[in-house]
Amino acid sequence: MSGHSKWATIKREKAVTDGKKGAVYARMGREIIVSAKSGGGDPAANFRLRQAIERAKAAGVPNDNIQRAVEKGTGAGTADAYEELTYEGYGPGGVAVMVRCTTDNRNRTAGDIRSYFTKYGGNLGATGSVGWNFKERGEVQVMKSDALDEDKLLAAAVDAGAEDLETDAADCILVVCEPFKLEPVRNALEKSGYKITSAQVSMAPNSTVEVVTADTAKQLLRLLDALENHDDVQNVYANFDMDEKWLQELVS
Q1: Residue 106 · residue 38 · CB < 8 Å
Q2: CB 3.0-4.6 Å disulfide test: which of 19, 80, 134, 199 passes with 203?
Q3: What architecture is domain 13-74?
Q4: Domains of the chain: which residue ranges?
Q5: How high is the pLDDT of residue 184?
Q6: Which range among 10-24, 64-78, 93-107 has the greatest average pLDDT?
Q7: Distance between CA 105 and CA 142 in Å, rounded?
């Protein structure tokens, strides 16, 4: 599991416990609105919406908030005109960064994202400047336990259509698959009795950049943290790897 994947896991665990529930709820609400708008309000027929709702519930978003977001997305409620945008650039140490946003004001969002890159030693680039280095993939996180047999998990995952396992995280194993196979892989593993902690389509780097100094690591994580905490930002992807000690120290 890359440094960025470990960082993302740590950030997810801290998001709600650090008193940022309002921001988390707003971000997930926007994802539900856009998902319902693009694919309809029935979770059974809209996989993206179903995943958005599951992530929202896992983060503790109240059911009333979820329902209102679905209604806004389908036109049953008052909805802002959200659009999805992706920004690309380089952070400290030459690390490639992709930022996916949902916004009702692209000028505001673009200005804010550009200012973060500049403030923390990076450069916002043109569309396609770093996207070539990322590949969309499905990721299913399976909780580790003393009784878990990795060989059996791998066999079950491959039978369901998965491609590989990433096993170097402390508390989970990442099952990797093609994006369109995310749902059948997740369902098959759940039926086999595995505890699924998350399932989502993500952007994985084709190659990584090693961050070699603590100062660069600190500056990079400050940039990523600022981006993550912006109200319009849905996801941040980067291709860095670094000493896990720095991750734990700087993110905690």
Answers
A1: no
A2: 134
A3: Orthogonal Bundle (1.10)
A4: 13-74, 83-132+207-251, 134-205
A5: 92
A6: 93-107
A7: 37
Spatial distance between the Cα atoms of 183 and 160, rounded to a whole number of angstroms: 10
Give the single-character DSSP code of 213.
S
CA 176 to chain centre: 14
Question: How far apart are the C-alpha atoms of 192 and 236, rounded to whole Å?
Answer: 32
Mean residue pLDDT of the chain comes to 87
* Residue 238 CB neighbours (<10 A): 28
Closest CA to 163 of 190, 142, 139, 144: 139
Measured distance CA(131)–CA(147) in Å, rounded: 39
CATH of the structural domain 83-132+207-251, one choice from 3.30.572.10, 1.10.10.10, 3.30.450.20, 3.30.70.980: 3.30.70.980
Q: Interior CA angle at 143 toward 141 and 146, to 5°?
A: 145
Cα separation, 167 vs 150, whole angstroms: 9
**What confidence score (pLDDT) does residue 224 get?**
92
Q: How far apart are CA 132 and CA 125, in angstroms?
A: 13
Place of tokens 């896992």: 58
- What per-residue confidence (pLDDT) applies to 16? 45
* Secondary element (H or E) of residue 89: strand 83-91
- Look up residue 117 and give its two tokens: 């890159």
Q: What is the pTM of this model?
A: 0.83
